[in-house]
Design a protein that fits this description.
29% strand; 13 strands
Length: 170
Protein backbone atom coordinates (compact mmCIF):
# COMPACT_ATOMS: atom_id res chain seq x y z
CA UNK A 1 0.00 0.00 0.00
CA UNK A 2 1.36 3.39 -0.97
CA UNK A 3 1.94 6.09 1.59
CA UNK A 4 -0.61 8.91 1.63
CA UNK A 5 0.19 12.44 2.81
CA UNK A 6 -2.46 15.07 3.51
CA UNK A 7 -0.31 17.83 5.03
CA UNK A 8 1.66 18.83 1.93
CA UNK A 9 -0.55 20.51 -0.63
CA UNK A 10 -3.82 22.31 -1.23
CA UNK A 11 -5.98 23.29 -4.18
CA UNK A 12 -7.54 26.71 -3.57
CA UNK A 13 -7.01 26.15 0.15
CA UNK A 14 -8.57 22.67 0.22
CA UNK A 15 -6.25 19.84 1.35
CA UNK A 16 -5.11 17.29 -1.21
CA UNK A 17 -3.95 13.73 -0.60
CA UNK A 18 -0.59 13.00 -2.23
CA UNK A 19 0.21 9.34 -2.82
CA UNK A 20 3.81 8.21 -2.47
CA UNK A 21 6.82 9.18 -0.39
CA UNK A 22 7.84 12.71 0.53
CA UNK A 23 11.27 12.83 -1.10
CA UNK A 24 14.04 15.04 0.24
CA UNK A 25 17.56 16.08 -0.74
CA UNK A 26 19.96 13.18 -0.32
CA UNK A 27 17.43 10.54 -1.39
CA UNK A 28 18.23 8.38 -4.40
CA UNK A 29 16.18 9.45 -7.42
CA UNK A 30 13.51 6.75 -7.83
CA UNK A 31 13.10 5.10 -11.22
CA UNK A 32 9.78 5.43 -13.04
CA UNK A 33 8.15 4.66 -16.39
CA UNK A 34 6.38 7.35 -18.41
CA UNK A 35 5.33 7.69 -22.04
CA UNK A 36 6.76 9.71 -24.93
CA UNK A 37 4.35 9.18 -27.79
CA UNK A 38 3.58 5.45 -27.75
CA UNK A 39 6.93 4.44 -26.27
CA UNK A 40 7.80 3.79 -22.65
CA UNK A 41 10.62 5.92 -21.25
CA UNK A 42 12.42 4.95 -18.05
CA UNK A 43 13.58 7.59 -15.63
CA UNK A 44 16.88 5.71 -15.51
CA UNK A 45 17.44 6.81 -19.14
CA UNK A 46 18.66 10.10 -17.64
CA UNK A 47 20.95 8.56 -15.00
CA UNK A 48 24.35 10.21 -14.91
CA UNK A 49 22.94 13.57 -16.07
CA UNK A 50 21.98 16.62 -14.08
CA UNK A 51 18.24 17.04 -14.48
CA UNK A 52 15.39 19.27 -13.47
CA UNK A 53 12.17 17.32 -13.24
CA UNK A 54 8.97 19.30 -12.99
CA UNK A 55 5.57 17.77 -12.45
CA UNK A 56 2.47 19.71 -13.36
CA UNK A 57 -1.25 18.89 -13.20
CA UNK A 58 -1.94 19.74 -16.87
CA UNK A 59 -0.26 21.76 -19.59
CA UNK A 60 -3.74 23.08 -20.41
CA UNK A 61 -3.79 25.32 -17.34
CA UNK A 62 -2.33 28.84 -17.17
CA UNK A 63 0.21 28.20 -14.37
CA UNK A 64 1.46 24.95 -15.94
CA UNK A 65 1.74 26.64 -19.33
CA UNK A 66 3.69 29.55 -17.79
CA UNK A 67 5.94 27.18 -15.80
CA UNK A 68 6.84 25.03 -18.80
CA UNK A 69 7.57 28.09 -20.94
CA UNK A 70 9.78 29.57 -18.20
CA UNK A 71 11.82 26.38 -17.77
CA UNK A 72 12.11 26.12 -21.58
CA UNK A 73 13.56 29.66 -21.71
CA UNK A 74 15.93 28.98 -18.82
CA UNK A 75 17.07 25.62 -20.23
CA UNK A 76 18.98 27.38 -23.01
CA UNK A 77 21.45 28.74 -20.45
CA UNK A 78 21.85 25.54 -18.45
CA UNK A 79 24.12 23.63 -20.79
CA UNK A 80 23.94 19.86 -20.47
CA UNK A 81 20.97 19.65 -18.11
CA UNK A 82 17.97 17.49 -18.97
CA UNK A 83 14.77 19.42 -18.24
CA UNK A 84 11.74 17.13 -17.99
CA UNK A 85 8.11 18.11 -17.53
CA UNK A 86 5.83 15.28 -16.46
CA UNK A 87 2.03 15.44 -16.40
CA UNK A 88 -0.99 13.19 -16.83
CA UNK A 89 -1.74 14.83 -20.19
CA UNK A 90 -1.82 12.37 -23.08
CA UNK A 91 1.45 12.36 -25.04
CA UNK A 92 -0.33 13.64 -28.16
CA UNK A 93 -1.74 16.64 -26.28
CA UNK A 94 1.73 17.33 -24.90
CA UNK A 95 3.14 17.26 -28.43
CA UNK A 96 0.54 19.75 -29.66
CA UNK A 97 1.22 22.02 -26.68
CA UNK A 98 4.96 22.00 -27.37
CA UNK A 99 4.43 22.76 -31.04
CA UNK A 100 2.10 25.70 -30.36
CA UNK A 101 4.14 27.07 -27.44
CA UNK A 102 7.53 26.61 -29.11
CA UNK A 103 8.75 24.27 -26.37
CA UNK A 104 11.97 22.75 -27.72
CA UNK A 105 14.30 22.42 -24.73
CA UNK A 106 11.96 20.82 -22.20
CA UNK A 107 11.07 17.19 -22.76
CA UNK A 108 7.41 16.53 -21.96
CA UNK A 109 6.58 13.06 -20.68
CA UNK A 110 3.20 11.54 -19.85
CA UNK A 111 2.41 9.74 -16.59
CA UNK A 112 -1.15 8.86 -17.70
CA UNK A 113 -0.70 5.11 -18.09
CA UNK A 114 0.47 3.88 -14.68
CA UNK A 115 1.09 7.02 -12.59
CA UNK A 116 4.53 5.50 -12.06
CA UNK A 117 6.26 8.86 -11.68
CA UNK A 118 3.49 10.28 -9.48
CA UNK A 119 3.65 7.43 -6.98
CA UNK A 120 7.47 7.16 -7.02
CA UNK A 121 7.96 10.90 -6.41
CA UNK A 122 4.98 11.40 -4.10
CA UNK A 123 3.05 13.79 -6.34
CA UNK A 124 0.02 11.72 -7.39
CA UNK A 125 -3.12 13.52 -6.24
CA UNK A 126 -5.51 10.83 -4.99
CA UNK A 127 -8.65 12.96 -5.41
CA UNK A 128 -8.00 13.92 -9.05
CA UNK A 129 -5.48 11.37 -10.45
CA UNK A 130 -3.27 14.23 -11.57
CA UNK A 131 0.36 14.93 -10.67
CA UNK A 132 0.81 17.78 -8.20
CA UNK A 133 3.10 20.71 -8.97
CA UNK A 134 6.62 19.96 -7.79
CA UNK A 135 10.23 20.45 -8.85
CA UNK A 136 13.11 18.03 -8.29
CA UNK A 137 16.75 18.68 -9.15
CA UNK A 138 18.79 15.51 -9.49
CA UNK A 139 22.56 15.41 -9.70
CA UNK A 140 24.71 13.37 -12.07
CA UNK A 141 25.19 11.02 -9.10
CA UNK A 142 21.43 10.28 -9.31
CA UNK A 143 20.80 11.78 -5.88
CA UNK A 144 18.07 14.32 -5.31
CA UNK A 145 19.64 17.72 -4.52
CA UNK A 146 16.56 19.96 -4.37
CA UNK A 147 12.85 19.34 -3.80
CA UNK A 148 9.87 21.67 -3.84
CA UNK A 149 6.36 20.32 -3.40
CA UNK A 150 4.52 23.56 -4.17
CA UNK A 151 2.16 24.06 -1.19
CA UNK A 152 -0.73 25.56 -3.19
CA UNK A 153 -1.30 23.83 -6.52
CA UNK A 154 -2.35 27.05 -8.29
CA UNK A 155 0.94 28.79 -7.39
CA UNK A 156 4.09 28.60 -9.52
CA UNK A 157 7.24 26.99 -8.14
CA UNK A 158 10.27 28.90 -6.88
CA UNK A 159 12.04 29.10 -10.24
CA UNK A 160 15.14 30.84 -8.90
CA UNK A 161 15.79 28.25 -6.18
CA UNK A 162 15.42 25.32 -8.59
CA UNK A 163 17.62 26.92 -11.23
CA UNK A 164 20.25 27.86 -8.64
CA UNK A 165 20.29 24.24 -7.41
CA UNK A 166 20.80 22.97 -10.98
CA UNK A 167 23.52 25.52 -11.77
CA UNK A 168 25.40 24.54 -8.61
CA UNK A 169 25.79 21.03 -10.06
CA UNK A 170 27.43 22.16 -13.31
Amino acid sequence: MSQERTDVATLKGNPLTLVGPGLKPGDAAPDFTVRKGLADVQGSTYNGKVRIITSVPSLDTPVCDQETRRFNEEAAGLGDVAVLCISMDLPFAQGRFCEVAGIDKVETLSDYKDASFGTAYGVLIKEHRLDHRAVFVVGADDQIKYVEYVPEMTDPPNYDAALEAARALL
